[in-house]
Design a protein that fits this description.
The complex is a heterodimer of chains A (142) and B (220). Chain A is mainly α and 142 residues long. Helices cover 75% and strands 3% of the residues of chain A. Chain A has six helices and two strands, in the order ααββαααα. In chain A, helix 1 runs antiparallel to helix 3 and helix 1 packs antiparallel against helix 6. The longest helix of chain A has 29 residues. The two termini of chain A are 21 Å apart. The relative contact order of chain A is 0.20. Chain B has a five-stranded mixed sheet with strand order 1-3-2-4-5. Chain B has one domain: Glutaredoxin (3-Layer(aba) Sandwich). Chain B is built from nine helices and five strands. Chain B has 220 residues and is α+β, with helices and mostly antiparallel strands. The chains are: A mainly alpha (142), B alpha+beta (220).
Chain lengths: 142, 220
């Protein structure tokens, strides 16, 4: 249960980070607070969109789904439901793989780092790591 | 469990508040054209950044605008070939002059950025950043932070860059360049002059190469 609570909390923080990047991308926010990174260069690159949709929006949708699943998994009737654990782990794995891809693009193609994207990648990795033990511990429901 | 939900609500409220606050903050605007014309005498008699050997027999002066899509296309498609085949072989020297068009919101700001990079010896690196990453010109968003990222990427001292940009240190240079272009009859960008004479041919590397080759033969 503690793990699911941690997943929900991390997903909420990830949702806020992804929303920040998305709001910048669609022009609601004028400037990204990035410290020494190159957030705007990364956000202006062609890799910041996938199929015409800002990559940050996939983050918003992914974290929102993870949070919703995590919250549902905290309810007593789903707490022991293995399907909730499998769904969480599957979605977290997709998110983790996507984060790996985006980080690789920053490091090896753009040679520029967006700190907020990196924060998101760390959050997604933590969610993924937390979701895996759930698979072992959740009893199967019949 | 109740505490956990309270924590969630608190994080959501703080994060949401921060996002709302951020959306209300206005970005320092990129400077627009000066309200009063700057005297050309205020400029430093600067004649533009050049590429190529001082002893090259021919010189092309390009009047360009960093926000202009044709200039970006020329810089990214034709210019690399011209650099390789004509400039680096010593046949041609290239001079870049700013001609930011008033219809382009951020071209003057971009030109200032390139001048500030030039102050640190990296004009052409900034020129390439501005043209190679030309998506900024299509978004209409204030490119202040993005240009700073470009400056960082090419290794500029950011404190010096910021001071240069904030003080619009080279505004008079830009005005002088525009006034010079207007006096020469420049109406659009990119416009070219080959050793002082207007070049009216197509702006392709093939055409420049053919012209340079024919003129070089004549000189011999």
């Amino acid at each position: 249960m503690i793990r699911r609570q941690a997943i929900v909390l991390l997903a909420l923080v990830g949702l806020l980070v992804a929303t920040y990047l998305w709001l910048y991308k669609i022009g609601v926010l004028g400037e990204l607070q990035c410290g020494t990174g190159s957030c705007e260069a990364v956000q202006a690159s062609r890799y910041a969109e996938l199929f015409g949709i800002p990559v940050a929006f996939y983050g918003v949708a992914g974290y929102a789904a993870l949070m919703a699943l995590g919250l549902a998994g905290l309810q007593p009737r789903f707490a022991a439901d293995r399907r909730a654990a499998v769904l969480l782990a599957t979605l977290a794995t997709v998110g983790f793989a996507f984060s790996l891809y985006l980080t690789a693009i920053e490091l090896f193609v753009l040679h520029e780092i967006c700190r907020w994207c990196l924060v998101s990648a760390v959050i997604m990795t933590a969610i993924w790591l937390l979701s895996l033990p759930e698979l072992r511990h959740s009893p199967a429901t019949t | 469990m109740k505490r956990f939900y309270l924590l969630l609500v608190a994080v959501a409220a703080i994060g949401g508040g921060a996002l709302w606050y951020g959306s209300q903050q206005s970005v320092p605007p990129a400077p627009a054209a000066p309200s009063a014309p700057l005297p050309v005498a205020a400029a430093d008699a600067f004649r533009g950044f050049t590429l190529g050997s001082d002893s090259a027999p021919l010189e092309v002066t390009e009047y360009s605008d960093f926000e202009c899509p044709f200039c970006a296309s020329f810089a990214t498609v034709q210019m690399p070939v011209i650099r390789e085949q004509l400039i680096s072989t010593g046949k041609l020297r290239w001079r870049f002059r700013d001609f930011p068009l008033p219809s382009h919101k951020y071209s003057r700001y971009a030109a200032l950025g390139a001048q500030c990079a030039g102050e640190q010896g990296k004009f052409w690196e900034m020129h390439d950043q501005l043209f190679n990453n030309h998506q900024w010109a299509q978004t209409g968003k204030n490119p202040r932070g993005l240009f700073r990222d470009f400056a960082r990427a090419i290794g500029l001292d950011l404190d010096k860059y910021d001071a240069c940009m904030d003080g619009q240190r080279y505004a008079a240079r830009l005005e002088a360049s525009v006034q010079e272009g207007e006096a020469l009859g420049v109406r659009g960008t990119p416009s070219f002059f080959l050793s002082g004479r207007p070049y009216t041919g197509r702006g392709t590397s093939d055409d420049f190469k053919a012209l340079v080759d024919s003129l070089t033969k004549k000189h011999k």
